[in-house]
Amino acid sequence: MSRFYISPHAQSDLSSILEYLAKEAGTWVARDYREQIRAFYRLLRDYPDIGAPRPSLGRDIRMGVVRPYLVIYRHSGG
Known about the structure:
- By secondary structure, the chain is of the alpha+beta class.
- It has a single domain, classed as YaeB-like fold (2-Layer Sandwich), CATH 3.30.2310.
- About 50% of the residues lie in helices and about 20% in strands.
- It has a 3-stranded antiparallel β-sheet, covered by helices on one side.
- α1 packs antiparallel against α2.
- The longest helix has 20 residues.
- It is elongated and about 40 Å long.
């Protein structure tokens, strides 16, 4: 099982997304999306190589999707 760190910038982005969803689509939609993100985090914890490599973005950078947003992360293999 891998450990991971959520940067302050990523946390801010997620908060903004959840606020937007709550305002535009309702709190239930925002809560559901938050759970989808948490499920993706659990998946990353257990299978950190699951995302598609994105070498054009930098070394060890991978991308996953939690529709409609992209999750960009660094996996250093350690």
